[in-house]
Amino acid sequence: MKNKLNNKFLTIIAATMLVGAAGCSEDSAEPEQLFVEQSESQTQEASLQEEESKEAAQEEESEEPVPSSDESSTVENSCSLDSLHSDGANVWAGTILACDGDYMVAGAPNSDQKALFEFDGDSWTEIPTDRKLSSGAFYSCYGKEELDSLSISVHVRQKVLECDSPAADSSPQSSSSDSKYVTTAKAGERYQSASRPACDGRNILIINSVHIPGNSKQTLESEIGKAMAHDADLEFTLPGQCSSLRASVDGQDVYPIYYDFGLDEQAMCEAKAVHGGNARTLNNSADFSDPC
């Protein structure tokens, strides 16, 4: 009997110890789980910091090649029509074809008349052209040696008309047979192509108007050349280039021989007082009035 009680008592003690051990095991698991949660939080925070550092480094790298806003602003301001027209000398050039901040190619809108300009830091100056043969006709162009001596960017130079050969070494060129009008004439020893001035309100003094019955191109070329031979500053343009120029009279095409004064109306009127002629404003309002 005594042995049975002892065995029962030992069984109760063993069961109690097992329950206690299980309880301790459950209690000790909680800190381990808490430790794991803390480790995951710290890992996530470290990952975020690493990503932020990478993004900051990438931003710094992307910012390095970008030019300063001052440099971009300077080029943008100089490569504008306001800058080109600042001194009032280049108002005929109303379209910018290419510009790098130092050199610019600009021309008259809706025309093949264009020129190369150089920026001196304050204003644009037109670089004088040569009257030479290019692609079978005479145009204002630039010699290769002259262009090579200038530090012109590639995209600007591509817009510059380069001379093929000196006019003196070429045979006389007549106007293209498929052209309705005379586009080239020999004035003395020089060949001159028809100008195509912009209809922008510029002032011209018409010294002569060449027109003949039948509109023979050969005869017209000769007469236009004679009318311009005495002064290299004279130009001629096509009939009706602007609506303020008469295209024809009694079926005869009219070629104006004129001096171009740009926006200087006073200079035009002073020249008229000396040379005579008809003062005219080039516009598309069909205004034939004489400003003088």
Beta percentage is: 15-25%
Low-confidence stretches: 21-38, 61-67, 132-139, 165-178
SS-based structural class?
alpha+beta
Number of strands: 14
Distance between the termini: 149 Å
Q: Measured on Cα atoms, how large is the radius of gyration?
A: 43 Å
Helical residue percent? Answer: 25-40%
Average pLDDT number = 75
The main sheet comes to:
4 strands, antiparallel
Shape: elongated
Gist of the model:
The chain is an alpha+beta fold and 292 residues long. The chain is 37% helix and 21% strand.
Structural features, described:
Strand 7 (184-187) and strand 8 (190-193) form a beta hairpin. This protein is an alpha+beta fold. Among the domains are: 1-66; 194-292. The protein is built from 7 helices and 14 strands. The protein has helices spanning 2-63, 69-78, 81-84, 144-148, 154-157, 217-228, 265-275, and strands at 95-99, 103-107, 114-119, 124-126, 130-134, 137-141, 184-187, 190-193, 203-210, 235-236, 248-249, 252-253, 255-260, 278-281. A 4-stranded antiparallel sheet has the order 1-2-3-4. It has a 4-stranded antiparallel sheet with strand order 10-13-9-14. A two-stranded antiparallel ribbon has the order 5-6.
